Amino acid sequence: MVALDRLKILVIEAQPTMRAQLRTMLSSIGMEEVQFAVSAGMAVRRLREARYDLILCEYNLGEGQDGQHLLEDLRNHEIIPLDTLFVMITGERNYERVVSTAELSPNDYILKPLAAEALRVRLMRALEKRDALLPAWRLMAIGDILGAIAYCDEAQDRYPLYLIDFLRLRAELHTAAGQTDEAIAIYHEILSAKAIPWAQLGLARALYLKKAYAEAEEILDGLINEHERFIAAYDLLAKLKEESGDALGARTVLKTATLRSPHRVSRLRQLGELSLSTGDPEAAEEVMGEVVRKGKYSDFRDPEDHVRLVQAQIALNKVDAAATTITDLDRSMGGQPKAELCKALSSALLHAHTGDTTRAQQALLAAAHAAPSASKLSVGIKQELIKACFDQDMGDAGKELVMDILRTSADERTVETTREVMKSIGLEALSREIEQRVQEEVKALISVGAEKAHAGDYDGAVAEMMNAARRMPGNPHVLFNAALALLRHIEHRGWNEAFARQARALIDRARKLAPTSTRLAAITEFMHGLIKRYGIRPERIAESADKAAMFRNTARR
C-alpha cells in the first residue's frame, strides 16, 4: 500500500476557510503534497495536466454543478483512472440523498465536521480496498478482460470484505467481454441476497443489451418507484423508450429526471433534442437556452447546443433571437472548426427560413464541405445538414453527407436513424443505394487486408486495415477487423506493445458502437490468449512506458 505521505492529492473546495482547514488537517496526518482547485472547471483542467492519487471533493461546488456530477464527468470522459481515489466531503443531508442510489459512487463519503484521525482511518480503508481491486484494473488497462475476471473470481475469497465489489466488477467485465448471460447470472446472485439499486440497474442494462426491453423496463419502473432519486435509472429508461420508438415516453421520463436533478447538461441536452423531434419547440427553446447558459461554466460545452437552440427559435419564428444566438456562438466559440460549421449550419437554417435561398445555399455549401473534417461532429447534426441540403436542392452535397455518416458512424442505431431521415424526405430508395455502395466499400477494404494476411504479409494487412479504420472510424465491422489484423501480426511476429495498444483502442471503440456484437467475445478471448502466451503483465508494460518516457526526456535535453 502507498503510504499517506507519498500520495499526490487534489482538494476541490470553493470556500477559502475550508481549504485552509483541510490543508492543516492533511498536513497533521503527514500528507503534504496537496494542490487545490476552487471550482469544477479548475479541477478538470488540473486533472488533465497531471495525475493524482487522491481527490477530496466538496459536494457543493456552485455554478449549478455538484461533486457527484463532477465525478460522473471525470469517469465518463476518462479524465481520471480507476485507481485514483475520489472521496466526497458532504453534509449529512446530501449524504442521505445520494449515497444509496449513485451508480458511479465515490470511493468514500466523509461527513462534516471533519476530524483528522477519522479522515486518516477512512483514507487508509479506501487505500486497502483500492489495493485489493488494483490488479483487476491493471489487467483491464492492458486489455486482458478475461484475466481480470479470473482475478476477481479468485480474489473474492481472499478479500471477503470486498465480495460485493468483486461481484460487481465481474458482472461489468462480462458485459464488456460480450458475455451478457454471465453478467445477468451475477446480478441475479447479488439481488437474491439484497435489492441493491446499482445491481438492479446493471441487470436492466444487460437485458436492454439483449433487447429484452419489456423485462428491462419492468425492472427500471420498479427501481424508479422505490428510489425516485436514482437518476441513472431514468436515463436508461429514456434510452430504452427512444430506441423502441417511443420518443414521447422518453421525453416524459427525462422531464421527470431533470426535475430531480436539474443541473446535468447532457441530460438537459437530450431533453431539448427530444422536445424538438416531438414537435414542442417552446419546451426545446427553454431547455436548450438553459444548456447554452450552463455550458458557459463547463469544460464540456458543445457548439451544437447553439444549433438546437436556433432550430427551436426558428420554429417559433423568433428570427431576431436566432440571429442573436448565432452571434453568441461566434463570439463564445468562434474559430474552432466544429463551431464554424455549427455557425454555418445555423446561418443556413435562418436564411432558408427568411427566404434568402442564395445565402442559405452558400452557408450550407460551406457547412457540407467542413462536416467530414470537423472533430466529433454528432450524427444528429450531420443528419440536419442532410435534410437542409436536400431542402435547398443541393442533392450532391446531401448524398456525400449520407456517405460520410455511413462510412464513419455505421453502428446499428445510426444506420436506422439515417434511413428514417432519408425516408422522411422521400428518398428511401436513394438511402438503400448509398448503403449498398458503402457496404461494398467495406467488403473491398476488408478483403484486401484478409488476402495479405492469408499470404503471410502481416505488415501489409495491418497497413491496409489501419487505413480502413481511419477512413471508417465508426464502422464496428471495420474496427473489429483492424484489431484482428494487429492481433494476427502479434500472433505470428511476436509481441508488439504499440500494436497491442492500438488493438485495445479499436476494440474499445467497437464495443461502444456494437456492445452486443457476436465478435466481441471471440476477439476478447484472442487477446487474452496472446497476453498469456507472451507472459505479458501490467508491470512489464508500466516499466516499458517508464523507460520510453526517460528516453524521451533525455532526448529533449
List keywords for this structure.
557 residues; mainly alpha; Rossmann fold; Serine Threonine Protein Phosphatase 5, Tetratricopeptide repeat; five-stranded parallel β-sheet; 27 helices; 5 strands; 72% helix; 4% strand; TPR-like_helical_dom_sf; ST_Response_Regulator; Response regulator; CheY-like_superfamily
Can you count the beta strands? 5
- The CATH architecture of the domain at 4-138 would be 3-Layer(aba) Sandwich
Shape from CA axes? Answer: globular
Output the CATH topology of the domain at 4-138.
Rossmann fold
The neighbouring-strand order within the major sheet is: 2-1-3-4-5
SS-based structural class?
Answer: mainly alpha
Radius of gyration: 25 Å
Strand content: under 5%
Low-confidence stretches: 544-557
Biggest beta sheet attributes: 5 strands, parallel
The CATH class designation of the domain at 4-138 is: Alpha Beta
| Distance from first to last alpha carbon | 34 Å
Structure description:
With 557 residues, the chain is mainly α. Among the domains are: 4-138, Rossmann fold, CATH 3.40.50.2300; 445-534, Tetratricopeptide repeat domain (Serine Threonine Protein Phosphatase 5, Tetratricopeptide repeat, Alpha Horseshoe). 72% of the residues lie in helices and 4% in strands. It has 27 helices and five strands. Strands 2-1-3-4-5 form a five-stranded parallel β-sheet, with helices on both faces. Helix 4 links the parallel strand 4 (85-90) and strand 5 (108-111). Helix 24 (476-493) runs antiparallel to helix 25 (497-513). The radius of gyration is 25 Å and the shape is globular. Residues 544-557 have low confidence and may be disordered.
